[in-house]
Amino acid sequence: MRDFITFAAPALTLGLLYCLYRAVTLFAAWRPAAAVVWATDYTDAERTDDFWGFGMLRGWRITDGDNQRLIEETVHYEDADGERHVAEVKRYVRTGWRPDGAHTIWYDTSDPDRATAFGPGYWLLIAVALGFALVTLMNAALKIHA
Q1: pLDDT at res. 88
Q2: For the chain, what is the largest distance between any 2 Cα atoms, rounded to a whole number of angstroms?
Q3: Does the pLDDT of residue 36 top 70, yes or no?
Q4: Helix axis angle, 2-29 relative to 120-145, nearest 10°?
Q5: Contact indicator for 49, 77 with CB cutoff of 8 Å
Q6: pLDDT tens digit sequence for 70-101
Q7: Judging by DSSP bridges, how do beta strands 102-108 and 84-94 pair with one another?
Q8: Distance between CA atoms of 60 and 11, rounded to whole angstroms?
């Protein structure tokens, strides 16, 4: 158990710091924009296959979660200056259900062609989960050494 704690605590701490870094970076230098989806790699045939629980067409990927798929979309959006941009973004959608045709993305103000669908809220939520796991792990370590 001590070996696990010795390995897990630094890994959780690094993960927590990275998530906080991403959230702060997005708040500081990125801006939200409404994006319209023009193309997606999650086809109607794959959605229907997933909806009925077969999952044979697309198969399982390591990035897919329980009842969710990581898909890639081509989105069009306008920056604060009114210029149109196109970007490839990845996001999670519910397995078998049609993704929304419009959603919020975050773009880099210094390079508006860089965009992500994972905003600061996503990173803060993961940071909270990692912080909880780190506190739980440290509590367990204190009980072992006591």
Answers
A1: 96
A2: 61
A3: yes
A4: 160
A5: no
A6: 999 999 999 999 999 999 999 999 888 888 89
A7: unpaired
A8: 27
